[in-house]
Amino acid sequence: MPLGPRLIVADHVAGLVRVVDLRDGRTTAQLDGRHPAEHAGFLALPGHRAACVDDRAGELLVLDPYGPDSGRPLVERRIPVAVPAEHLAADPSGRRLAVTTGLGRNWSAWSDPLTVVDLEAKGDPGAVRVRTRTGEPGVTLAGPPGDPLVVLRHREPGELTAYRHSALMEAAPSCPPAEPVTTLRLADDDGHGDAHDPVTGWVFAAAGSGVHRVRPDGDALACGTTLPWAAGGRDGGRGYYLRLDAAHRTLWSCVRSGPEAAESWPDWSNDAWWHHLDTGVAGRLDLGPGLVFRLAVAAGHVAFSRVHPDGDELVLVSTGGGAPAVTARVPLPPMAGAPRRGGTPWDGVQRRAVAASPGGSLVAVSRGGHGEVHVFDALTGHQAALVTVPTPLDEGGLLALIEPGDEAHRDPVGR
């Protein structure tokens, strides 16, 4: 029987990871007592594998979601890494990885270790920890295939620092400080969001003034023009997230505008922003008010979940042929602990995770606090499945959706 789509559902609060065959709802594997880092997300690797960081155990987990179907374990590798994990990325080969550390459940930055991993290193564990700079750095791996640069994106002050992966792997024990081979000051101190296009080598960093672009040039970083948030006759706001649609050669974000106060979140406006990497054509589409943050890339659509006191919805934007357009707005069942007017949209409230595969039309959206994941077919806008788990999925949980042959690893940054 041919393999079908697999949905990984992780409850990072309760400590549960479950793999579900979406064809029949069957659970094919489960891990108890595992707490994947929600902010670092899942990283797609070649061979239909996925990586995440267990924030309680301090381990990078390489998962083989189709392994249990053939008698292989779900956990292919366990590698010690520093936590709390902030961001996770790989080089295009999927062999070399990097994990940055951030705030975790703390109010201010306190952790500065960076962990680099070589999945093919001789001996165990194939990981080295060094110290860089306290903050919440994003990370990408770009440059020569055999020895990429590990590029960290920092805030306050905004800068990019780059390190040779091979040099970091040779660092001494006891978490020594690492000196970058190059440092590039950014004009903004509010960077948030990273992407890497392996085809052109460009590294992208989202900030208030636009999307900064750099490309490795030896041990240096060559700057390109900054991509503006203004596009398609719409301006204002900024994006806090970047995602690569490798199949359609398009960079995506959600641009937020409106009052600065977090308590005014129902009045925020949100636009889907895209930039075609080869033609330079860009545009924006109105998604509606409220909280829109992360997005997911399906075969012919990009999916956004929108949270608002008047009702939540899944917004589907077409990507195949012609200019992107909103094709469906699908109402989502309410969450009992949803953000309220007058409060913030992320402190002590429920959230939604969203996932899709670039190899299929299915989109999964969690219902935080209810232990439910609703699966829709983007081609029709209709619900295709309902997945339930025995834990609440507080804070929305964490999702990954894998389709056979989807080549999701062409986006080498964890989501």
UniProtKB/TrEMBL annotation:
It comes from the Bacteria. This is Uncharacterized protein. It comes from Streptomyces fulvorobeus. The lineage of its organism: Bacteria, Bacillati, Actinomycetota, Actinomycetes, Kitasatosporales.
